[in-house]
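Hi V.,

Quick status before I head out on leave. The structure for the redesign project is tokenized and pasted below; the design run finished overnight.
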């Protein structure tokens, strides 16, 4: 991604990213860059207590400074707002609190909501929370999931209308074998061989098992922060449209891939080269539907939306579907499996490939 060239123009300054995850510890790399949001878990501690280390890794990939030998994120000038939710295998039998977490992120002053988690079933309350966040002009990214070899559906919240689903690619541009695929894949970002905190003791980074669509989502969120920082008067629709326009692909833009969506994010094409057209402020570039004009980086709130009852439901056929059929439980979550290709050093920067080769098998997105 030519990070050094990007940072001469934009570091994400002035943009806040709400990280809905396991909490964010203020690591040396995140000192002065993370704010406490809401903790919806009911666990000990607060939003700045990370019970797993996953959220801290995601936050560093977005806005880490690299201090203390830590990760330097793609948008090191951005700030993170931590929203702690009940995620991971230990909570599989617990009713999802993602709806409350998404609403908390929507009520914060973050422009971007990064959600590196997923589950198999749709909750009407969570879907309503996403609509609420969209009504406030938030740009939302979520991981599509890491179980492509076990199932052929994409996780929620990535499958909700209004959320940009992110798949994982390797450094050659191929989709990762584990990255879930389908109509809800909108963009792709690097998601293999990413350094990560080993566990909640925060003693060291690990070189194995890092990445997944979780990391890809964090990197996509950081890319959006770079673009929005350069164009603070744009809306979420315009930032997303430019990310789509400038994504690396070797297939027609109007035939998005079920594996890599509209392509691999390449923010330098806009931030450095000025490519990409923002288009109308109030049209969603994926659904082509009108949305409330709210939430440019220079602007903020919009009307709120009412919550739904916290029931669950099965996967709908399309991202723009409006069905809210009840189901029984949420199965989560994104484990972030993969191998590391970012080397750790005194400062490890997220330097991601400029997409050239896309040798992955692609199929026309289902209608």
């Amino acid at each position: 991604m030519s990070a050094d060239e990007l940072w001469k123009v934009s570091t994400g300054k002035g943009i806040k990213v709400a990280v809905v995850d396991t909490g964010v510890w203020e690591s040396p790399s995140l000192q002065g860059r993370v704010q406490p949001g809401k903790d919806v878990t009911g666990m000990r501690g607060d939003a700045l207590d990370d019970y797993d280390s996953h959220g801290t890794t995601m936050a560093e990939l977005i806005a880490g400074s690299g201090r203390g030998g830590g990760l330097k994120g793609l948008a090191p000038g951005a700030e993170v707002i931590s929203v702690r939710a009940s995620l991971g295998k230990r909570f599989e039998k617990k009713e999802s609190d993602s709806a409350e977490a998404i609403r908390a992120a929507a009520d914060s002053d973050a422009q971007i909501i990064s959600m590196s988690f997923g589950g198999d079933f749709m909750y009407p309350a969570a879907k309503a929370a996403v609509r609420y966040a969209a009504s406030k002009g938030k740009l939302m990214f979520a991981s599509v999931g890491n179980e492509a070899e076990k199932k052929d559906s994409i996780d929620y919240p990535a499958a909700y209308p209004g959320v940009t689903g992110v798949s994982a690619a390797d450094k050659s541009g191929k989709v990762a074998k584990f990255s879930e695929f389908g109509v809800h894949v909108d963009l792709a970002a690097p998601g293999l061989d990413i350094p990560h905190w080993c566990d909640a003791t925060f003693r060291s980074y690990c070189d194995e098992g890092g990445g997944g669509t979780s990391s890809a989502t964090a990197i996509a969120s950081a890319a959006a922060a770079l673009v929005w920082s350069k164009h603070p008067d744009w809306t979420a629709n315009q930032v997303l449209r430019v990310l789509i326009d400038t994504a690396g692909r070797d297939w027609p833009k109007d035939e998005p891939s079920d594996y890599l969506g509209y392509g691999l994010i390449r923010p330098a094409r806009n931030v450095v080269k000025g490519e990409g057209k923002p288009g109308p402020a109030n049209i969603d570039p994926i659904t082509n539907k009108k949305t409330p004009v709210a939430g440019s980086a220079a602007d903020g709130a919009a009307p709120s939306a009412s919550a739904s009852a916290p029931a669950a439901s099965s996967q709908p056929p399309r991202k723009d579907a409006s069905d809210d059929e009840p189901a029984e439980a949420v199965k989560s979550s994104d484990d972030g499996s993969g191998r590391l290709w970012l080397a750790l050093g005194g400062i490890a920067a997220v330097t991601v490939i400029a997409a050239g080769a896309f040798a992955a098998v692609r199929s026309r997105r289902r209608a």
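Above is the designed sequence. The chain has a mean pLDDT of 82.

G. will cover questions while I'm gone.

Best,
W.
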